[in-house]
Description:
This protein has 316 residues and is α+β, with helices and mostly antiparallel strands.
Amino acid sequence: MKVMGGYDFPGSNSNIDLHALTGWIPERIAMHSDNQTFNKDSSFRMLYQRFHKGDVLITTATGVMTDEEGEHWGLVPTHAYAVLDIREYKGLRFLQLKNPWSHLRWKGRYSENDIKSWTPELQKYLNFDPRTAQKIDNGIFWIAWEDLYKYYDVIYLSWNPGLFKESTCIHSTWDAKQGPVKDAYSLANNPQYRLEVQCPQGGAAVWILLSRHITDKDDFAHNREFITMVVYKTDGKKIYYPADPPPYVDGIRINSPHYLTKITLTSPGTHTFTLVVSQYEKQNTIHYTLRVYSACKFTFSKIPTPYAVSKRVVLL
């Protein structure tokens, strides 16, 4: 609230808040069934390893649910929880969460009132005594990984930018009058950038963060702009048609002010990409920042419009 200028604040999510407070790189992992890329096993392994290395801060949030569902499970609808710990014990996987309200806890499996699931060995390993926990509700609880991805909606990651040796950014504006409302057939008027990466032996990771600038509270409250980043493997040339060539990474248009694209390079040498900023049904002029993080050397620049003069002909 302090960052947004006071208590007249429309609300946010933990990903946006942590980026504003820390500058760490935001990433969103949707866990619901329509996200075909979510893999529960590899996702847990990644969270477990990177959390314990100190590379990332993790929060998770519930989705829309009825008041009855929330009361039954001890969950607050559309609410964020901090991840305090991640553990694995004899094939069982757990996360320790904290409700920032410091009360209202999970009522499902492995809650303090679950007398069937807890064993003395597991209690010792997780340093948790259900009988002691029953005496005070501090909003902290353990939840099984299987229950988290069943009853929660999204995981928010905030990555330490110090993981990358190189970074740079470009600030720019996309005028609403520039090009058609939809870019389904032509990308000629979309902002485009050339990224050339010098990949060493052993491979490298390159992340591109697209951040739309929030200029007023109404914009922040309603999030009407759907943005994304589309990546093409090219020689850095301008792209005119969305499917020619096919996208190397085709982004999903979401109404979040941040969109993170990850590129993993495995072969050494020079790799060149065209990055295209895209919107769904462009309505307003947007101001944005593109920031590139890389483990290796790269160059990054805007692709100029090749035609300096244009003229419209009206046929009668």
